[in-house]
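Subject: Sanity check before I submit

Could someone independently write out the structure tokens for this chain? I want to compare against mine line by line before I put it in a report. The sequence has 268 residues.
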Amino acid sequence: MIRKAVFAGSFYPAGKAELYKTVDMLLDPDSSRAEKVPAVIVPHAGYIYSGKVAGLTYASVSVPDTVVILGPNHRGLGREVAVMKSGEWEIPGGSVEIDGELAELIISLSSAAASDSVAHDAEHSIEVQLPFIARKNPAARIVPVCLAGVDVNIADDLAEAISRAVKEMKRDVLLVASTDMSHFISRREAQRLDFIAIEKIKKLDAEGLLETVRENSISMCGVLPAAAVIGAAKKLGASAASLVHYNTSAEVTGDASEVVAYAGLKIS
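---
Independent answer below. Compare away.
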């Protein structure tokens, strides 16, 4: 099964040469600063808007041969916790293979996860990560997980299943939570709200993050992926998180009255 590059030409360039040139510009060339970490949180908008944050975040870490990517389901298709367990994802000029063995194990260890490719068909939150991952490590394979809703029990279930699977497979794995921050409010208000959520992430407080987003009505679309990744990373030994970069769409549009915000964090 080949999952086509649906958003090539809109969220990022469709041609291989132009895409790699763009990604290389967004990735910090000083690779000596790349750190081995269990997890990152990165945005997923069009590269013109969130590419700087994503590039700086990926540049700051090493990308191993297996990457588990959790992204929100914006389209409402497929299962609530949808794991694509076989095939490959097309990117311009190539493809990224799915780590079927790890995907199967995560499904078997989770009471919520199910094999489902439908949820991934028209979803951008995972696709836009792949050019960065492939450029950092062309041999990397992925486990794509698409999540709907905001349920602390699902976050806990996935944290346990993913961490157990990684330990059992004894592989070097990077966990990626794909999320944007506040949507369609002023830059000042976005910054105020987002940094409340970011403080919870920095403390690796997954439950607190979910509560904070709900109580403050923060439009952080991937809060469930972030909470699950924080929980899994803690079970794998993580003890802290740090902010790599934060900005908003106003840096591109010049309009601070209504923005979408982006944060990149690494969990170590």
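---
OP: Matches mine. For the report I'm noting this point. The chain has a mean pLDDT of 97.
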